[in-house]
Design brief:
Layout: H1 3-29, H2 42-51, H3 53-80, H4 91-123, H5 130-172, H6 179-197, H7 205-232, E1 237-239, E2 244-246, E3 253-255, H8 262-279
Antiparallel strand pairs: 1-2, 2-3
Helix pairs in contact: 1-3, 1-7, 2-4, 3-4, 4-5, 5-6, 6-7
């Protein structure tokens, strides 16, 4: 895989995912009471959804797209993060964590874009019987707690924060990034865990919303800064001897020695194979 292509694709994916997460978060926060909607009675939740259906479904589709793009981001980040370090320990596990986080994210918000609109329409249908309305309420309670809260909330948040923390630890030791970028990512991951599993009550709603806003800003900032340093690494210039490259305009050097890095070994094997074919 081409080094520059990996860096560019990872950088752009980070920018797109950061924008999607921020826009969808702001859209949902603009809906009065949405932060507590999973804890409300079905009738109240249906009322909030019906009054803000366009905003909620629009934000849900954006979050589904966020989860979908998290899958290629996990794969491209798996390759990009290896360019500045000589270790690949745990990278495969981190990639799988992010992939499953994206899948769970999609499952959680499919409920709000597909299932809840039908249930809300059924609940407020004047021709619907009491038994039908009660059935819609029961289905909503089950589906929203299982997929909205359990899968899309707890599981997705836990896996994504674990991926973010793992990548940030590697960043702190990478030649491409500065240690402060890794510290920022670890802080964002910690805040995400707290925001995901903090007890949610109506009396503490304003505090939780504020904390969630700060957490969203930290994660978005980490993505933007990570993309910046990836794009900045494109100006690496070759120097001799050995396989070392000057990083930007600084004296720091990025070690891509084929004997030490997985990326370097792959390039060495590819180059050697090409040389053998050409000399035959």
């Amino acid at each position: 895989m081409n080094q520059n292509r990996v860096i560019v694709s990872t950088g752009f994916l980070l920018l797109i995912v950061a924008v999607l997460a921020s826009v969808s978060f702001l859209m949902l926060q603009s809906v009065p009471g949405f932060s507590q909607i999973l804890l409300m009675e079905p009738s109240k939740a249906f009322e909030i959804f019906s009054n803000n259906e366009t905003t909620i479904t629009g934000a849900s589709y954006l979050m589904i797209l966020f989860g979908l793009l998290l899958i290629p981001l996990a794969i491209s980040m798996h390759h990009a993060i290896r360019l500045g370090t000589d270790t690949s320990l745990g990278l495969g596990i981190l990639k799988q964590l992010a992939i499953f986080a994206g899948i769970f994210q999609m499952l959680g918000f499919i409920v709000w874009s597909v299932v809840v609109p039908y249930l809300a329409a059924t609940f407020f249908d004047p021709a619907a019987s009491v038994a039908t309305k009660d059935g819609a309420a029961v289905v909503y309670s089950s589906v929203s707690r299982l997929f909205g809260m359990g899968v899309g909330g707890y599981l997705s948040g836990l896996l994504f924060s674990a991926w973010l923390a793992g990548i940030s630890i590697i960043q702190a030791k990478s030649a491409i990034f500065r240690p402060a970028v890794g510290v920022l990512g670890i802080t964002a991951a910690s805040a995400l865990v707290i925001a995901t599993f903090a007890p949610s009550t109506t009396s503490e709603a304003s505090i939780l919303v504020t904390f969630a806003t700060i957490n969203n800003m930290l994660v978005g900032l980490w993505m933007l800064v990570t993309a910046f340093y990836l794009f900045r690494s494109l100006d690496i210039q070759t120097v001799v001897p050995a396989h070392q490259y000057t990083y930007g305009n600084t004296s720091r050097k990025l070690d891509l020695d084929p004997a030490r890095t997985s990326f370097g070994r792959a390039k060495l094997i590819q180059t050697s194979s090409q040389f053998v074919r050409e000399t035959r």
